[in-house]
Design goal:
By secondary structure, the chain is an all-alpha fold. It contains nine helices and no strands. The two termini are about 30 Å apart.
Length: about 210
């Protein structure tokens, strides 16, 4: 039986970090020359690939950390710093440099199929998302099963938002997308700051 509160917490955090809202304007821009059918197929492939990439890291995260002798505290601190950087960039309305570069965006605009790169990797399954699933899949946190179930739900939402991205953008509008992105960035900075504090408290640097 899944702990509902724990599941909701992981789900909320993964949604903030994967951030399909931020992917909408870029996706529409780099697929402007594709047909609607082609865009829909690319969205489906991207979400499937992103799920398997992130599920892989959720499944082997503990083994990987143990192999390299990395403690959960180290992951919390380093992951918190990374996510804080992403959150700050979202807060100021910039596409995060951990997701795409200007060169990658230009190359993507010239590609016929952007489902694997940059849509699946790194837009949906970027460094921030990989760090998060490894962190949450640790036994001291939620565990891999909860993370994988949450990933299914988050990427299903991501698929729906990107599948109907044109409608979503028309309803919300460019300003609405920016406002949502900034709010999500602000929340992500709160989450990442707490991760850093938890990691510091675990190693005795501060009192929890």
């Amino acid at each position: 039986m899944i702990d509902v509160v724990l599941y909701a917490t992981v789900l909320f955090n993964l949604f903030l970090i994967i951030d399909p809202v931020a992917a909408i304007p870029l996706f529409l821009a780099i697929t402007r020359d594709n047909t609607k059918t082609e865009r829909h197929a690319m969205v489906f492939r991207a979400c499937v690939v992103a799920f398997f990439v992130l599920a892989f890291f959720a499944a082997i995260g503990r083994t990987l950390l143990n192999y390299f002798g990395i403690s959960i505290s180290a992951v919390q601190i380093a992951g918190g710093v990374l996510l804080f950087t992403i959150g700050i960039e979202m807060l100021f309305g910039r596409v995060t440099r951990t997701e795409t570069s200007e060169h990658e965006e230009k190359v993507a605009a010239e590609k016929e199929d952007v489902s694997i790169t940059p849509l699946a990797i790194p837009l949906l399954a970027g460094p921030g998302a990989i760090t998060a699933v490894m962190l949450f899949s640790h036994p001291d946190s939620a565990g891999p099963f909860v993370v994988i179930v949450a990933l299914l739900f988050v990427l299903a939402i991501s698929w729906a938002m990107l599948r109907f991205s044109e409608t979503f953008q028309k309803v919300i509008g460019p300003i609405g997308l920016k406002v949502i992105g900034r709010v999500m960035g602000l929340l992500l900075t709160f989450v990442s700051a707490q991760l850093i504090l938890n990691g510091l408290a675990a190693v005795g640097v501060i009192h929890g």
